[in-house]
Amino acid sequence: MSNNVHLVVGNSYGAFAETTAAITYDQAQELLPSLDGSHLLVCGQGLTAEQLSELAQAAARLHSAPRLAYAEESCPAELTHKRDPRYVLITTPQRIATRTYRMLLRVEPQQDRLADHVTGQHVNGMVMIEAARQATIAVIERECPHPEGKRWSIAWARCEVSFLAFAFPVPTTLTVTVEATGDATSSQVPLSFMIRSTQGDIVVAEQSMVLTLLDPSISTRLEGRRARQTASQVMTQCSELLELAKLA
Length: 248
Known about the structure:
Number of helices: 6
Mean pLDDT: 91
CATH superfamily of the largest domain: Hotdog Thioesterase
Oligomer: single chain
Largest sheet: 6 strands, antiparallel
Order of helices and strands: EHEHEHEHEEHEEEEH
Strand content: 25-35%
Number of domains: 2
Strand order of the largest sheet: 5-6-8-9-10-7
Structural class: alpha/beta
CATH architecture of the largest domain: Roll
């Protein structure tokens, strides 16, 4: 890494910073006043939107401001089917070719159970899987709009993941390719997705998703019927176990 290029990571990735030439957010704040326009701050993972904004504002106040490179704002929560925008892990997908989209990973230090396993060195695998799932949903919203403007229900059939290298808290690109896997109708669309996560020239993970988009009216009926069946079977089993307990 050039002496004029500084990789900034969140404070929770202090172990990564100690192992490499990276610096934490707190260290970047201390270093910033000594930098000029010949320096570049590359912002990796673990930084909140507020911290990125504070770094940008602090740099702008300098006479010769260093440059900042960081992922744009997170994807809108509705595109990823998340209720809380704090838990969105990707930026908005950009179409780069036919049925192919690209976006960036945005890991913020939120108190989410997926991020609770923090080594201080790498981004944990469950976060990478969830980011790929969100990327898939966001591409569905962009590539496969419902003919009546409704939101598709997603019937997940299979998810396979290959972790090929450690994922570190550095700028990360997700590339998503979608393919049809059968005949589509107005009420269901079978699809497969390939999601590739790269850091520089290194592919750190590849995931494939197989699913079917269902009209919400169909999925509501299917899910409701299965819910009733499951509840009935569980209650019958509990009743049988209770009778056995009485006999013991």
